[in-house]
Please model this.
Amino acid sequence: MTTPTLTPDTPGTPNTSGTPNTPGTRDPRTAPDVSTSISPTGRSLWRSARGIVAIALILLLGATITVLLSGDGESRPLDPRDTGLDGSAALAALLEEEGVRVHRVTSGDEAATLARPGTLLLITASGLDEDMAKRLAALASDRMIVGIKPGMSALAPGVKPEDAARTRSREPDCPLRQAVLAGSAFTGGVVFTAPNGASGCYRADGKPSLVRYETGGRTITVVGSGEFMTNLRLDEDGNAALAMNLAGQRDILVWLTDPAPGDPGYAEDGVAGPGGASLYDLMPDGVGWAAVQLCVAVLLAAVWQGRRLGPVVAERLPVVVRAAETVEGRGRLYRARRARDRASAALRAACLDRVTPRLGLSRTAGPDEIIASLAARTGEDALELRSLLYGPAPTDDAALVALAGRLDALEAQIRENSPTGGST
Model:
């Protein structure tokens, strides 16, 4: 029959295997044989991060759709660079494919520099004034005016705007070759009174919405509406043919349009100024919504992944801790905090606890009684013994080590002089 034994470091834990337990180890019958890694794996990382990835993808998709649907933000009617419904980027591309060089300008000064004999000046800008209109009228290039502009009497002498007309598909109803070849077109807007000898086409109530004539060696064309030139209407009826026939009559087309964000002189209120657009003006409208969605995503992720106290983790007992490890750990704590007073007090108290019973004294004996008994037993000076056991704390680590050595030597001397012959 096997006698149960107790592990020295784990009092009260029976061992019926016949083999003493090794300090610092578990009973093999209760401890698992296979160790489990606590390092994060790829699967655990994916499980913890897949929620964030899904939210980020949803927000990214929403921001992308918002930016795509918002387009360029501000519409620029009859701008050769605008790809919106009201822009004319499609017409500019068709003209360039036919060999026409399109120069987009946003100021009268640029137009005056480029518009020379043999070129066509197309005026779609709405920010002209009387002085600039007179300056443009003095240029030797052909002109095409879209809509009513300030200084019409100078830009198109003899042409007078009359009533407004509904914009719709109309037949040419005139002998003008460019209009006859194009056929029906989406015209109207404004009708005019044409000067003698001019060709008037696309009439509303008997008055033309397109007037073309020659004066002073230049060809002047006036149209009441430029909707047939927009990206929205260009592929309807004969709009593309009419726009190409009118705007592509010269190899060089100088297209005067309103400034857009990023152009010199652009202003938020539409009035040209000396400064350019700010960085905020150049951003599409969807960027703001994307930034808001990103902030919301970061806030949700912070709330979700924020540190929270979970349930208490229960550890399987008993846990064997070596006595030497406990002493070493406490010593390191004393050393880290430089607690020499507490360390010396602990050494002296432990020495007194072991020495007092060997002197035949009770644990309630006072210092004077202990010192007198020690002096009689060892023959050492009582003052030195009092300084050793009840003196001040050491001032440095070397003094603390010396104190520990003297206490150990005193305890060894008491054991040697003990009536039991030094046995415990």
